Each structure stands twice: as structure tokens, then as C-alpha cells.
């Protein structure tokens, strides 16, 4: 009885070891999966878990083989792109044994790794990079500006403006002759006349007197370091920093939090850390190599179990 149990245990371990090693062949059963190797289905780092695409693979197996023809039109990571689109087989025509499509695949198991921003328009993208489908700020209902494309492949109208249509709208201080009721007097000056610049900002140089500071009105006066985007022609470097982007705070004072370097009146950075040097450098060697994922050391103990089981059976029978 004990002999039978030990034999069955050895066979079971052999099966587990064979199955663990055979999974690597599934890389060849998915188009362009060789670009990710075992990480196509598994979480990186030999964690033992599969990603959402791996879950779909496990539910579409027949005799241990991947049924790609049943999966290509699914969207494992829910990013709006089918598995086929991400792996270079958008029409599901690839089959096991065919050459991989010539395509830089994006991972079908992670929504933040998709075809967006590859410069090629997909059906579910309004835009991609500089590909805007011929759309402009004007076609989007704005008077002027430069239409962009954001990281989600949707139109970015932040640089579009209605400046120039003669009507004060969001983002305008004025537009043509329309000052929205603003006058030199309402800004705190003694008198004079306002002028509207081509960027729909107020030019108050013809106003007379000196108004009291009114932070937030868009007009920089004495007592204010800055006002909105008016930084008085100052930059991080002119203030003594090494670089970065100077901003204006809500209190109309310079915000140097985005400036870089050691700050004014102190020694500036003169060198950068040696990426191969010792002081806290970020080493890429800790990240692991996805190419070796299928033959990782984590699987080694499993492959030795069959021999241990055989030795156990042989030793037990010798003792008997």
C-alpha cells in the first residue's frame, strides 16, 4: 500500500514538473508573445501570479494549447484595445506555426501599456501624437490656438482659445474692445485708458496713478513679485537656482518649488552622479530579465522533485 502511494506521489510530481516547464511553449502559441516571454501571462518577478491576460489564456485552452482564435477579439486589460490589436493581429488571422506579425506589441495584460501614443490612429482614438484626424482648434469650436493630443489619445484643447472673437470668455482679460466692464479706475488707477493686446491680456500702461496691490486680478503692480503668468521676466536661474520652472503663488510671490539645484546664494550643482558609481545609484540589475522568466530559478526546485521521489521509493523498497 505504501509502495503504491509513493509511486503515485512520484508520478504526480513528474506531472507537475512537466506542466510547469511546458507552459513556456505557450509563448509560441500567441502572436508576438516572444516580446514579453513568460511575462505575457505572468506577473513580473516570478511571483507565481498571472496577469489579466494570463487569466484569459487559462480559460481558453484546449489540450493545453492556447485557442488564440477565441481570444484575439477580447480585451483582457480593459484599455479599449483588443488582444489582437495589442499583439499585432487585429483581424484574428494568426494561427500557431505562422510567423509573428511585424509589429511592436503592447502588453495585453496592463491597461497603461497600450497602443495610445504610438503615433498610429486606432478606431477608438480621437488622436494619437501628432495625428489629429485633420481636426483643429477652430473645428472644435474655438477661435484660435493649437490643438493637441493628451496621454489618453483624446483632444487637448488647453492651448485653444476664443481670443479674437471680440467677446471676453474664460481665459480672456479682454477681447478687442470688450473689457468686460474693466476700466483703469476699477483696477485702482486714478484714470487713463486700457488697451487690449493680441493675446487678450490687458495693457494698463496708459492708466495713471499707482493702484494698491490686488493679488489675483491678473495685473502685477508694485508690492507684487508676480501675478498669474506675469513673472516680471524672472526665471529660476535669474533668482539663483540651477534651472527649473518658476511659478507664481496664490499670494503673488515667487514659487520656487519647481526650481532645481541648491538654491540662491549657495553652491550650484556642477556634476551629476555617476550612474555606475556607488552613492545610491539606481541599478537596473535588480529588475530581473524577462527573457529568463520561463527558466527562472524559482522553478528549479520543482524540476528536482521527481528524482527525490524516485529515490524515496527506491530506498523504501530496499529497506523492506
The gist of it:
This protein is α+β, with helices and mostly antiparallel strands and 320 residues long. Helices cover 17% and strands 9% of the residues. The relative contact order is 0.10.
Q: What does the secondary structure layout of this molecule look like, with pairings?
A:
Elements (H helix, E strand, L loop, with lengths): L1 H21 L29 H7 L2 E2 L2 E2 L16 H5 L56 E2 L2 E2 L5 E2 L3 E2 L29 E2 L2 E2 L5 E2 L3 E2 L34 E2 L2 E2 L5 E2 L3 E2 L39 H20 L1
Antiparallel strand pairs: 1-2, 3-6, 4-5, 7-10, 8-9, 11-14, 12-13
Helix pairs in contact: 1-4
Structural summary, described in words:
The chain has 320 residues and is α+β, with helices and mostly antiparallel strands. It folds into four domains: 24-115, no CATH class; 116-161, no CATH class; 167-211, no CATH class; 215-268, no CATH class. Helices cover 17% and strands 9% of the residues. The protein has four helices and 14 strands. The chain has helices spanning 2-22, 52-58, 83-87, 300-319, and strands spanning 61-62, 65-66, 144-145, 148-149, 155-156, 160-161, 191-192, 195-196, 202-203, 207-208, 243-244, 247-248, 254-255, 259-260. The strands form seven sheets. It has a two-stranded antiparallel ribbon. A two-stranded antiparallel sheet has the order 3-6. The protein has a two-stranded antiparallel sheet with strand order 4-5. Helix 1 (2-22) packs antiparallel against helix 4 (300-319). The longest helix has 21 residues, at 2-22.
